[in-house]
């Protein structure tokens, strides 16, 4: 076995290509076995085993900068840079991060989690290198899916213009999470499949040069014909026109060819794009045959790839997907838009039912948002189905195109709250704070999946502008689902439990936490009210006034950034109404990035638990004897 002895990429340099191939197989086995227990991004990593080996064989990390787009395919890089003994802890609390992580290793030079940042990062590093007069290599590894992201196009435009020396490796496995989409994807597929394109670029260019130059009137025509021939025969002309030297396509599982191509790339002075063809899930049948499943897999049986995840209540996402079908039948104008997350957003059933009314735009959150604005302005009812974390990309489009136009766009914001194993790059805890202040927007969060269904109906019937509902990445509560859907009064909260001295104002899954805490405290003689603060905007003004009049001590409990979310909104409300003695305590996500682990651990870490809430209310009670209780507040 070679693998256990490899703990520094320098050791690769003395291996023969046969030994590298053996190592590739050992790494595959290692990943397939380890991930049965931890889960993780299996398919993407199995696809880049040879590519990563070839990179570390040819270049000197960390001196040469290797930048992995998204960073979900860096497991092999982690194995080769001294972290193989930590794979049992992958994506667990205090364990190895599922993405590239600077604090883990000097070889991790750029962190991500969101896609399409690698080319801008590479350009920045190449610029800094040149300005400092250094001569290291800069290499960005970007997938065909990540290349659909707007940032990648912006960077290509800049890199091709600047002509600095850097290498872009396009890892083309024809897959985003779902099968890749778009015109660029079609272009790459053409290069992949057209046998003409597989002719070596040099060979074609040599043959064209052999056509003698002619003077006179015919010259221009002949040059044009030569150009056309080149466009027909040479792959990657699009990239060449953008200022890159295109090399490939190269079989990404052939170590010798990869190494040769990298050596060739080293001789190019400006930017090079190496087009590498790989197979997602390579070497593990279940992953090769079910690409979608193998992208981010939970623990599984090694023989079949079958998930070991216990079957629970349907997730909020599934309830969303099913309800969307019901609403799609009700209103033919309803159309779903996803930026490359059709499966994760629960839209496959909808796409099956209404193939013409589901649009996957690729990793293009900004475009998706503006597209929805325009669809709405032309009388359609678009649902922008998006993960909270990825919606961060579309902030300007939400303000400028959707809300300013007061367009009837419905936002289905999934993964709102903690997400668990993906950790800090993916936490959905900022959207309330970055959307609540935008004029025209209505924002809701359901206490359970049944209420989600009513919110979806509310959104469809609301025709006064943009409206959002956000829901978590967890199983539903198992509550009975009402067959008949109804609209909720905009801005209405629900008082679920009475309680004059103390009340918890909670949203989403925190409502259940509040109910459980109230039940425990009741047994201890402390009566605590629970309010389902299901509208994050507008707030329920009359209920807030009632609570203040009753001099109720309130705790605002939310799995969202404490700064700027519901708690802040409540404080602003009382300040605006000059109610200065309202007793408001905040329990939200503190001013920290919360790392990977389970959602339970993330809630414990941030004090968003039944125990922490009980303790907080008991402390409030203990301290209350030292504070003067007023009854008049307005
Ligand atoms: C801005 C953003 N939107 C969506 C995602 C979700 N996402 C993660 S990986 C991925 C697919 C990337 O495909 P590709 O770059 O081809 O890598 P592969 O998994 O095929 O190796 C998507 C859509 C993301 N990480 N960032
Ligand atoms: C890398 C990435 O961004 C996605 O693959 C993400 O891990 C998917 O998350 P879900 O499992 O919540 O769909
Ligand atoms: Mg891909």
Q: Which short descriptors sum up this protein?
A:
single chain; 634 residues; alpha/beta; Rossmann fold; 3 domains; 7-stranded mixed sheet; 5-stranded parallel sheet; 25 helices; 17 strands; disordered C terminus; binds thiamine diphosphate; binds 1-deoxy-D-xylulose-5-phosphate; binds magnesium ion
Architecture overview:
- By secondary structure, the chain is an alpha/beta fold.
- The protein has 25 helices and 17 strands.
- The chain has a 7-stranded mixed β-sheet with strand order 7-6-8-9-11-10-15, sandwiched between helices.
- Helix 5 (118-132) runs parallel beside helix 6 (150-162), helix 14 (316-330) runs parallel beside helix 20 (449-461) and helix 16 (365-377) packs parallel to helix 18 (395-403).
- The longest helix is centred in the first third of the chain and has 22 residues, at 17-38.
- It starts with 16 loop residues before the first helix and ends in a 10-residue tail after the last helix.
- The structure holds thiamine diphosphate, 1-deoxy-D-xylulose-5-phosphate and magnesium ion (MG).
- The site of 1-deoxy-D-xylulose-5-phosphate has 10 residues, from loops.
In short:
This protein has 634 residues and is α/β, with parallel strands linked by helices. The protein has three domains: 3-197 and 245-295, 3-Layer(aba) Sandwich (Rossmann fold); 316-470, Thiamin diphosphate (ThDP)-binding fold, Pyr/PP domains (Rossmann fold); 494-624, Rossmann fold. Strand 13 (502-506), helix 21 and strand 14 (528-532) form a beta-alpha-beta unit.
């Amino acid at each position: 076995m070679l693998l256990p002895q490899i703990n520094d990429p320098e050791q690769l340099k003395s291996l023969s290509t046969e030994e590298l191939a053996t190592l590739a197989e050992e790494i595959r086995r290692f990943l397939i076995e380890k991930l049965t227990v931890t889960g993780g991004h299996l398919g993407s990593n199995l696809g880049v085993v040879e590519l990563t080996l070839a990179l570390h064989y040819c270049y000197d990390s960390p001196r040469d900068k290797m930048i992995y787009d998204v960073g979900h395919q860096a497991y092999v890089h982690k194995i080769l840079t001294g972290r193989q003994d930590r794979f049992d802890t992958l994506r667990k609390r205090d364990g190895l991060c599922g993405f590239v992580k600077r604090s883990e290793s000097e070889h991790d030079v750029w962190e991500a989690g969101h896609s399409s940042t690698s080319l801008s990062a590479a350009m920045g590093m190449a610029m800094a290198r040149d300005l400092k007069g250094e001569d290291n290599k800069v290499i960005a590894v970007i997938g065909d899916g990540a290349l659909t992201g707007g940032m990648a196009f912006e960077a290509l435009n800049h890199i091709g213009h600047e002509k600095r020396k850097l290498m872009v490796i396009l890892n083309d496995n024809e897959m985003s999470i779902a099968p890749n989409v778009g015109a660029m994807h079609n272009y790459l597929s053409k290069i992949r499949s057209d046998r003409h394109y597989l002719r070596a670029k040099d060979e074609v260019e040599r043959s064209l040069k052999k056509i003698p130059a002619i003077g006179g009137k015919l010259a221009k025509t002949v040059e044009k014909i030569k150009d056309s021939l080149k466009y027909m025969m040479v792959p990657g002309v699009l990239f060449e026109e953008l200022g890159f030297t295109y090399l490939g396509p190269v079989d990404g599982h052939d170590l010798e060819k990869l190494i040769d191509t990298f050596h060739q790339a080293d001789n190019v002075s400006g930017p090079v794009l190496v087009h590498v063809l790989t197979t997602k899930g390579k070497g593990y049948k279940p992953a090769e045959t079910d690409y979608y499943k193998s992208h981010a897999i939970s623990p599984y049986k090694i023989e079949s790839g079958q998930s070991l995840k216990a079957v629970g209540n349907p997730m909020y996402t599934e309830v969303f997907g099913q309800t969307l079908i019901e609403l799609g039948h009700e209103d033919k104008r309803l159309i779903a838009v996803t930026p490359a997350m059709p499966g994760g957003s629960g839209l496959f059933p909808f796409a099956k039912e209404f193939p013409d009314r589901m649009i996957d735009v690729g990793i293009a959150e900004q475009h998706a948002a503006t597209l929805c604005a325009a669809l709405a302005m032309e009388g359609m009812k678009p649902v922008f189905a998006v993960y909270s974390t990825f919606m961060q990309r579309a902030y300007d489009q939400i303000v400028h195109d959707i809300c300013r136009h007061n367009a009837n766009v419905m936002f289905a914001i999934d993964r709102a709250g903690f997400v668990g194993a993906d950790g800090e790059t993916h936490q959905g805890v900022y959207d309330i704070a970055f959307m609540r202040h935008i004029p025209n927007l209505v924002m809701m969060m359901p206490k359970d999946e049944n209420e989600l269904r009513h919110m979806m109906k509310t959104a469809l019937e609301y025709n006064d502008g943009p409206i959002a509902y956000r829901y978590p990445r967890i199983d539903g509560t198992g509550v009975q689902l009402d067959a008949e859907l109804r609209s909720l009064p905009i801005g209405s909260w629900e008082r679920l439990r009475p309680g004059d001295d103390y009340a918890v104002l909670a949203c989403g899954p925190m409502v259940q936490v509040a109910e459980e805490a109230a039940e425990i405290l009741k047994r201890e003689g402390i009566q605590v009210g629970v309010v389902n603060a299901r509208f994050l905007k507008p707030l329920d003004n009359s209920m807030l006034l009632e609570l203040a009049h009753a001099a109720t001590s309130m705790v605002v409990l939310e799995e969202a950034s404490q700064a700027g979310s519901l708690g802040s909104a409540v404080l602003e409300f009382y300040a605006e109404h000059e109610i200065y003695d309202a007793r408001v305590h905040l329990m939200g996500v503190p001013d920290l990035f919360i790392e990977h682990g389970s959602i339970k651990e993330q809630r414990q870490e941030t004090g968003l638990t039944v125990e922490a809430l009980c303790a907080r209310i008991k402390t409030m009670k203990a301290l209350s004897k030292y504070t003067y209780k007023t009854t008049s507040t307005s």
